[in-house]
Amino acid sequence: MADYYPMMVSLKGKRCVVFGGGAIATRKVKGLVESGADRVEIVSPDLSHELQQMVRIGAIVHRQREYKEEDLAEAFLIFAATDNYKVNQSIAMAAERSGLLCNAAHKAEEGTFVTPAVVRRGELLLAVATGGASPLLAARIKRDLEARYGEELVHDTARLKLLRERVQSEEPDEKRRQLILKLAVEDLFSNSSEVRSTVECLVSIDAEIGNWLRALQQKADRGHEK
């Protein structure tokens, strides 16, 4: 992965075009939609049953025909995922000539970006990539991450986001803010977390975050005294 720069990108309002309608294209389209992409177009004479369902509910737009180079115009992301190697290669080469980002399903190095195996837990995103060296290894590590980091992180990540907003508005000192946020993460991963033990008793998320912040402030004060 030495030749790749990892980053997260927002796909809201961006035109994403997927060429192909089989299993690989289906995975690519699902990944885009799950990432919040709202302008996904798929170009293919035929579609898998799952893609047909997505077209039916309006999640994606279907161009029922073969690839044309003009399909690349004004695209933000391109996925060459047909079952024809030469067609995929042509798409990747045309995208490169136009300076467009393209994922080549047939051969990763012929594209300009790769898609990692992803584990989503609310706003927490864990990604694994091998640069095309071994998709099976990436899938294996993904399964390990899914087992290790459960659905409780959906709630925990949401709470950390709210806490961070509260800390930024109430704590003027930057060092103290960072200490409190560090303690919050440690708190979540501690089996003896006082916050976890009282969550069921709290009547609202606002009250929960307020109580948690006060507990963390007390911990920060005790640490400072030492």
Strands of the biggest beta sheet: in what spatial order? 3-2-1-4-5
Helix content: 40-55%
The value of Rg in angstroms is: 23 Å
How many individual β-strands?
A: 7
Task: Give the SSE string.
Answer: EHEHEEHEEEHHHHH
CATH architectural grouping of the largest domain: 3-Layer(aba) Sandwich
Supply the CATH class of the largest domain: Alpha Beta
Low-confidence stretches: 192-203
On the 0 to 100 scale, the average pLDDT is 88
Describe this structure in words.
- The chain is elongated, with a radius of gyration of 23 Å.
- It contains 8 helices and 7 strands.
- Helix 5 (152-170) packs across helix 8 (205-225).
- It has 3 domains: 1-115, NAD(P)-binding Rossmann-like Domain (Rossmann fold, 3-Layer(aba) Sandwich); 116-146; 152-225.
- The protein starts with 14 loop residues before the first strand and ends with a helix.
- Helices cover 47% and strands 14% of the residues.
- Residues 192-203 have low confidence and may be disordered.
- The chain has helices spanning 23-34, 49-56, 85-97, 135-148, 152-170, 174-188, 194-198, 205-225; strands at 15-19, 39-43, 61-63, 77-80, 101-104, 117-121, 124-128.
- It is an alpha/beta fold and 226 residues long.
- The strands form 2 sheets. The chain has a 5-stranded parallel beta sheet, with helices on both faces. Strands 6-7 form a two-stranded antiparallel ribbon.
- Helix 2 (49-56) links the parallel strand 2 and strand 3 (61-63).
